[in-house]
Write a structure and sequence with these properties.
The chain is α/β, with parallel strands linked by helices. Helices cover 33% and strands 21% of the residues. Strand 11 and strand 12 form a beta hairpin. The structure holds flavin-adenine dinucleotide (FAD). Belongs to the flavin monoamine oxidase family.
């Protein structure tokens, strides 16, 4: 790879689902003089598989979430187009598969009933708050108002599965109105299909990326530039200049930036001029959550198999300690691979300790669940999304305290710099389909120039008059946060 200079109409930064979709949208609208700068050596971003013990496993996104509902999830359509190998996940028997430090428990029908009733209440409360135009509250606040907060290890792990297992942050952090009920499941359906395809889940991007491929599906188009880590963006009203770590410089009329929220929160990219205060505020207020799947390979299986056994839970005194387990007997039969999912602080801890330390913790948990005679694991695989400077987490989560006004600031362009990526999808942030829709929006905005026709308020947000009037009544960021942000901006100078 050598340094180069070039001048194009549009620069797309990032070749994940959103960047590839933005390129497709530009192409469909007659704009072909663009390039895509991608830091890694492949297309797909957070949809990425890896070889593990001779099998392909998914380090990032794994499920097509939201299927068999009123609307068709575009990711499901893509999965059908490439004939992706998937299996419907069956969570219905979960409360019969709970273990504690002293082994398996009988079916937890009482705890299950409490969790289900509480979740129904939480969703109804959210719908009512939204209908009445009331302020947002956290999911935990809603649980408190129900009258009981999950507190035993079994209640806590069922609660963890329901909330942290989906949003990767606990109920005290997540916004009630913006996560319950999740628009993904409400609009696209309740079903989740687990991808287990030897070609990798990222194969679903191929139909979107046809404009970059040869007939045999290889990424050959020179507009796709891999191993280009963007480290500087100079933006003005007239255009953008983007520099990469290898010394290349590209100029364009506009850029579409699709890097993750975690990357925006870091200092990887030097923006000149500094991003304005309203933009930084939105970037720092939204959350980049961490979700980690740890894969383990054993010489033989000691877990239960057969219908209704795929998911099992470990109920520890400490909420979120190696809680959600899944075997792959249907997807990778005879592989003897299982994986455990952790999130948030446990993920941070695990990313910082050695794989051997984590393995020792995991073996202790498994021995308490299944008895002391189980075999040692032969291999372990631990993705480190949070430590990776190109991601800094797994997906965004809508925290309590962020208004729709601030969310719109996260999406809003500045001069000729446009923002896309899953974290800019108001309905589907956190998901592949959110990234997909955001790529379409960014491509369209650039092409049609609609941005200039929309109402622009003082902070540069594109809004309709009605939403502006409504959102101007939303509470503003605390002054403490403002002090913090100003300090951050000064540090950059
Ligand atoms: C562990 C995990 C589990 C998940 N599970 C699911 C799931 O089951 N279902 C689901 O729908 N979603 C899931 N997601 C979320 C889903 O993967 C993302 O929402 C989606 O893939 C994001 O696409 P994107 O294009 O917005 O961002 P990305 O995929 O992050 O694409 C951005 C691209 O920008 C590149 N980049 C970053 N910095 C630079 C730079 N400085 N210069 C140039 N390039 C740069 C990155 O390498 C990346 O390729 C999961 C994610 C993770 C990590």
């Amino acid at each position: 790879i050598s340094a180069e200079d070039s001048n194009v109409d549009v620069i797309i930064i990032g070749a994940g689902m959103s960047g590839i979709t933005a390129g497709k949208t530009l192409t469909a609208n007659g704009i072909t003089n663009f390039i895509i700068l991608e830091a890694t050596d492949k297309v797909g971003g957070r949809i990425r598989n890896s070889d593990f013990a001779g099998y392909e496993v998914e380090l990032g996104a794994n499920w097509v979430e939201g299927v068999n509902g009123e609307q068709l999830n575009p990711v499901w359509t893509l999965a059908q187009q490439v004939k992706l190998r998937t299996s419907l996940s069956d969570f219905s028997n979960l409360s019969s598969n709970v273990y504690t430090a002293s082994g398996p428990l009988p079916p937890q029908t009482d705890a299950d009933a409490i969790t289900t009733a509480q979740n129904e209440y939480v969703i109804n409360l959210s719908v009512n708050l939204t209908a009445n135009g009331d302020d947002d509250i956290s999911v935990l606040t809603a649980q408190r108002s129900y009258g009981s907060v999950p507190s035993t290890p079994v209640e806590m792990v069922l609660d963890y599965f329901l909330y942290d297992g989906e949003y990767a942050e606990p109920p005290r952090v997540s916004s009630l109105k913006n996560t319950q009920p999740g628009p993904t499941f409400k609009n696209f359906g309740e079903d989740l299909y687990f991808a287990a395809d030897p070609r990798g889940f990222a194969t679903i991007i191929k139909p979107v990326a046809s404009y970059l491929q040869s007939k045999d599906g290889k990424y050959v188009d020179p507009r796709l530039k891999l191993e280009k880590v963007v480290n500087k963006i100079v933006y003005t009203k007239e255009g953008v200049t983007v520099s990469t770590e290898d010394g290349s410089t590209y100029t364009a009329k506009a850029a579409i930036l699709t890097v993750s929220l975690g990357v925006l929160q870091s200092k990887l990219i030097d923006f000149q001029p500094d991003l304005p205060f309203w933009k930084l505020e939105a970037i720092f207020e939204f959350d980049m959550a961490i979700y980690t799947k740890i894969f383990l390979k054993f010489p033989y299986k000691f877990w239960r198999t057969g219908p209704g056994t795929e998911f099992f839970l470990y109920a520890d005194d400490s909420r979120g300690y190696y809680p959600i387990w899944q075997h792959l007997e249907r997807e990778l039969p005879e592989s003897n691979i299982i994986f455990v999912t952790v999130t948030d602080d446990e993920s941070r801890k695990i990313e910082q300790q050695s794989n051997n330390e984590t393995l020792a913790e995991i073996m202790e948990v498994l021995k308490s669940m299944f008895g002391p005679d189980i075999p040692e694991a032969e291999e372990i695989l631990i993705p480190r999304w949070w430590s990776d400077r190109l991601y800094k987490g797994s997906f965004s989560n809508w925290p309590i305290g962020v208004t729709h006004h601030e969310f719109a600031q996260l999406q809003a362009p500045i001069d000729r710099l446009y923002f896309a990526g899953e974290h800019t999808s108001a309905l589907y942030n956190g998901y592949i389909h959110g990234a997909y829709f955001s790529g379409i929006d960014a491509g369209k905005d650039e092409i049609t120039g609609k941005i200039n026709l929309r109402c622009t308020n003082q902070t540069g947000i594109r809004h309709t008059e009605a939403t502006m009037a409504k959102e101007s009544q939303q509470p503003k960021a605390s002054s403490q946060l403002k002090v913090h942000l100003i300090r951050h901006a000064r540090e950059k100078l």
